Amino acid sequence: SNCDWEYDVNKGDSYMIGGMIKPGTPFSELPSNWRCPTCRASKDNFKEVTEEIPGFAVNQGYGFGGNSMTAGQKSGIVFGGLFLFFILFLAGYGLS
User: Fold this and answer.
1) What percent of the chain has pLDDT over 90?
2) CA contacts within 13 A on the Cβ side of 61
3) For 30-70, where are the alpha helices, taking DSSP H only?
4) Which of 11, 37, 66, 82 is the most buried (most CB within 10 A)?
């Protein structure tokens, strides 16, 4: 088990004390003897964090792009549309 420290490709670990990995280095290219800078866990103890796109892979190319969006992106569009409608609704009262 590790300490929940997440390796960020854009940062590497050179900002940590004793870190030698430069920013932009993918996790797969880290040396096999690399250890977590916080808890010293080995590279094998880390799990890749992925964001799953729901639905079948063959259907993700159809439609207006909604099939290939993540759940967070879809929520942003839905709630953004509701917010826009609310603003327009209030603007209608301002006209009268």
Assistant:
1) 19
2) 2
3) none
4) 37
